[in-house]
Amino acid sequence: MIYLNAKKMIRGLFVFTLLSLLVLQACDDDQTKDDPTPSLEPGVEFTQPGTVTLNISTNWGTGPLQLIPTAYPTPGLDTVRVSEITYYLSHLTLTRKDGSKHLVPHHNLITYTPNQPFEFSLTNIPPGQYTQVEFTIGVDSVTNSTGLHEGDLDPSNGMYWSWATGYVFFRMTGRHAFDNKSFVFDIGGNANLMKSSFSLTQYALKGSQLQLNLVMNAAKVFAGPQVYSFATDPQQIHNAGAPGIAKLMPNIEAAFELNSINMQ
Amino acid sequence: MNKVLGSFVILFLLLHGCTKDDAIIANLPPQPDTGSTFKPTPYLLEIPFGLPPLPLQPNNPLTVEGVELGRKLFFDKILSRDLTQSCGSCHNQLFGFTDNGKRFSMGITGAVGVRNSMPLFNLAWVEQFARTNHRFFWDGGATNLESQAIDPIINPIEMDDSLPNVLNKLRNHPQYPAMFKKAFGSDSITTAMLMKALAQFERTIVSGGTRFDYYRRGFNDEALTPQEKRGFDLYVREDKADCFHCHSVGPFMSDFSFRHNGHQSTDVGLGRITNNPEDNGKFRVPSLRNLVFTAPYMHDGRFATLEEVVEFYNSGAIRTAPADPVLTKHPHGLELTEAEKADLVAFLKTMTDSTLLTNQKYFP
């Protein structure tokens, strides 16, 4: 017994020392960026200019989201059938250990198609060690307020408010069982840009091709941090100041999960 | 010195870029195909007397080809679902680009709107001088001319079409693909190009050179009659008509703000755009140029004559909140005499530019 406890203690000490080292290292500002030793640092290291590929699956909970007529229960004691999820994923930003950031300017329009992950790549990621990745859901305020844009931002894609001009950042539509009506979440407006960010420090990878496997878990739009229930919350959201948006925004941000990453 | 300043600016930008959480990058304007023969001709706009220089539009500079395309599009019924209406249907040059004296306009399905067709001239300066992103439409719902022109095309009570359908019609038209290529250097036709062309044409519609311009800016005392000068005096007197707090004396006779003018209308105006109850009932303070051509007046065209408008501000307007403070500070109305009201109307008519109705550059 004593022998076992001692062994446990030694193992505990070893883990503690390792953790301390990692923490100290993370706090050490004098650490040179171009450490020639192989990457044991937390995060991902681009050894040369590289590419980030985002692969986005859409789930309800643990399984792939099925559209109408599949019905899903929500924590708000409701039943929801989803007919559309469309949004802009924009401005992927990688953060270095020293807090400096590399922002890739882009707006990708993502429309959910069942059983078909959405994938796109961003190039010219500068070499360096990155410890965090984030992106915004929506269109930045400058782009949103300066005329019209091309490609994914062409207003003919239907993600545009013509009467209060600006892009719709996120759309989710469907029906719910509460009183068997349709619901529409159209979220836009410069104050309502959403952001999801993920730490990469649990990984220690290097290379030039990083793939981020993301899951958009649609259940979380209704589940939390705050439960959204059609019994009390709005069913129709069509403008930037609509009640309900304040509750939905953190839920949508939390709906994005970084499932796994790989790098080569 | 400049070098030092420059270094500081660069340093600031660098630091800023490293620390700011929400870095914002505007999309670059579309670049024409390199190596093509794309060489649009700069459009030289003659600015009438009394107006300031045209503000630069770096994202959509005026070109001969762009304006020509915009003019054709403005008068082309192809922009409506059943090919029966163009922008020009409700913005008729002979009425200062308003709808033929009508209170409300009728869309292609026969549906009738709830607001009066707005005059279209000197619009580039609205973008320059408006102090918020609320620039166009009576309720300030559009941030710039490019984005403004979408709604009339897709609104079910106006031209009732869809952007994909309009773009398809233009792509399959015998002339438009070549015209878009000349204007924007691209083989494709996009929403942004369509709206840029319309905005370019609209920005060329300028109006000035009125008798009041020669009085105000030309210091020509003879330009106004004694009655008109008395009217102007009432206009700028706080204890009389007190028009100038909103319709600022200047090139546009408006501060381009949104205010509640004491109307009794259930239309919430700007409040629908901002979702701020304090904005309910606020509408654009319009320019007072060319009023002779643009009757009826107010956001809902409720007054057919300038005499009615003056009488409304004299005695009809609500003088308690939510009306604008400029109205509430006159709790008993303006108490103008009949002669003063006539003088004021006479003055308002001095801001009339009849060449706006005959300028061939704006013909279909």
- H/E topology pattern of chain A: HEEEEEEEEHEEEEEHEHE
Number of helices, where a helix is a run of at least 4 consecutive DSSP H or I residues of chain A = 4
Give the overall shape of chain A: globular
Query: What's the CATH architecture name of the largest domain in chain B?
Result: Orthogonal Bundle
Rg of Cα set of chain B: 23 Å
Strand content of chain B: under 5%
Order of helices and strands of chain B: HHHHHHHHHHHEHEHHHH
Largest sheet of chain A: 15 strands, mixed
Q: What kind of oligomer do you see?
A: heterodimer
Name the structural class of chain B: mainly alpha
Task: Give the helices and strands, then pairings.
The complex is a heterodimer of chains A (264) and B (364).
Chain A: H1 2-27, E1 43-60, E2 63-64, E3 72-74, E4 78-96, E5 101-103, E6 107-111, E7 118-125, E8 128-137, H2 141-145, E9 160-161, E10 166-176, E11 181-188, E12 194-199, E13 204-217, H3 219-223, E14 236-237, H4 245-255, E15 256-263
Parallel strand pairs in A: 1-13, 11-14
Antiparallel strand pairs in A: 1-2, 1-7, 1-8, 3-4, 4-5, 4-6, 4-8, 4-10, 8-12, 9-10, 10-11, 13-15
Chain B: H1 2-19, H2 64-74, H3 87-90, H4 123-129, H5 145-148, H6 150-154, H7 163-171, H8 176-184, H9 191-204, H10 211-216, H11 226-235, E1 258-259, H12 270-274, E2 283-284, H13 306-316, H14 325-328, H15 338-348, H16 355-358
Antiparallel strand pairs in B: 1-2
